[in-house]
Amino acid sequence: MPMLRDAETGDWIGTFAGHKGAVWSCRLDPAGLLAGTASGDFSVQVWDAVTGSALWEFPHKHIVKTLDFSEDSKRLATGGHEGLLRIYNLTGNEVEQQTPLTIPQRPDKKITISKCVWLDDDTVVAAGSDGGVRFWNVNSQPGEKPTRMLTVDAEIRDMELSADKSMLTVAAGNKVSFFDLTKMALEGGATLHPSGTKFVAGGSDLWVRVFDFETGAELECHKGHHGPIRCLRYAPDGNTYATGSEDGTIRLWKTDP
User: Is the pTM of this model over 0.85?
Assistant: First the structure.
């Protein structure tokens, strides 16, 4: 059973009793007034973190592995073996609370969600068993694609967003990856210079950016495409690189303009 303990002393404060299966995830809301638990009994429960009273129970159709509260504590995101990211409105009436927004990770295949975190009031980041990290706009219409996507080469076991929302830590297989959300064009493409000293990245903001490999510092920034940039590649000699865009064009750039 999930327990609440004093962070400094480790002393037991209380136990949230109610689940009939293993509890896979526990979260406090930003204000520390609500607690959420995701369980193998196919349910999520929300508790009063002060009194321990059960407030809401949200049934699912399979094991729930993760949950997270929005920054304003008004919404709750959940995910698990169903492959559906669910967004619950905690401030609505009973019908609204039990009718969440559901977002499948892929339309053609079930992807287990191992972790989900709120990036901001509009965006939830979901980590999947296919190694994909998907950024979802929870205010968009059903059927829309993720606004961004990162990939790693193994099933994702854990994911953490830094307190300032700038760094995403992803554990998958035998590797830990760190993604700087402030510098890289995460939803596009990238290519490493043959020397290994710099790389080029591009994405939906239409800019082509060159970064120092060691420091991550931005060295150059170029504009030319009129649509999202999806693929970038250096020439074998490193003197030029190509960028491919959804605007239907491929552009060639000099490495040292």
Answer: no
